[in-house]
Please model this.
Amino acid sequence: MSTLAAWRDRLSYQPLSLGIVALSTCAILVIANQMTRPKVIEAEQRDLQATLTEVLPAGFADNDLLKDKVNLTDPAGLPVTIYRARKAGTMQGAVFQTSARGYGGEILVLIGIDTDGKLLGARVIKHHETPGLGDKIEASKSKWIHDFEGKSLESPPAEKWAVKKDGGVFDQFAGATITPRGVVKAIKQGLMFYAAHRAEILAPDTTQGNAP
Amino acid sequence: MNTRDIMKDGLWNQNIVFSQLLGMCPTMAVTTSGTNGLGMGLATTAVLICSNAIISSLRDFVSPQVRIPVFIVLIATLVTVVDMSLNAWMHDLYRVLGLYIALIVVNCAVLGRAESFASRSPVVASALDGLFMGLGFTAALTLIGLIRELIGSGTLFSQASLLLGAKFAFLETTVLPNYGGVLLMILPPGGFLVLGLLLATKRRLDRYAARNSAAAPAAIETAAAGCHL
Model:
């Protein structure tokens, strides 16, 4: 131990020991990453799959939505991945993510739409709204998000796609108007995006090598 | 230092939140409900035990001049490994706790214990110190969380089954049904209010205990004297 104590006070010992610690921790991180990576990807795919099926009615599709996707760019130039639902090979609808600004930042909404442009379901998947006020947009906290099911751009008409305070048909919450306004806007934009790109989204030949 | 002292220090005398006032960032951010406090506390406990044990076993090799960077690198690595393994093998738990795990790196209590205890104590004592400091932290966070949750939304341990599994669903209680809620308690000011009141309570209890222990020997002496007479 005494030789170690003598070594420890040398100038060269300190950078060397720091270097060894840095190298070995890096090695541990690399190994841990290698070991967990496949499992993590698998788990994330499972999560995505679970949310995808949540915005579609039970038994709506029989294909693997994760493998049947189209990539487009939204009006702001950002990439959108569209997952397509088929049953026995026929196109049934599509699921994709849309977003708008809420009170505390971006609200991400996943929406499922059938081939006629009717909304099948919507789920808020990420938001930064005030807990206790704005978080009623989550399906686990309130039924509010289910109000959107069955709506489309024709019913209610475009100018009624707003919260009641703005002359629309959707409820706002006591003390929180900006949050539901954001969700309504996100879903409306999603429907408009779908209407504008309907042909591209539903074209069977754009499948990326995984057609049934 | 014996186990009893380590236990007393961790749980009460040197409690991370109530005495050392360390780790205030996770304390304020996470304690919006009892379940969240408990989850953060347990995750921190696991990291504290491991980091204390590792740092204690390396204490002879780390020279005092570079100890702080070495400790920080070790703690950050440990937290990252915990984060990745939870994400891979306990993904459901990770979905609930994932938010907190990365926050543990910035909890200065972990570095604090490495510096003030583990770097100068044997491995077993250091691991025990990590355990009891962690449990003290867990108790403090759960208590603050429960008080904020009760006043803020009228429930106790809501969504506990997500964290602990379906068997613990019985913990979820709605104390005040149809309660409007006091938003202030859920927002950050509520955290400061509850922490301040709890700190004052602990100081008062400590002062009361100190007065009693100062008075007690005198009482025994008079009693003994009474026997003689």
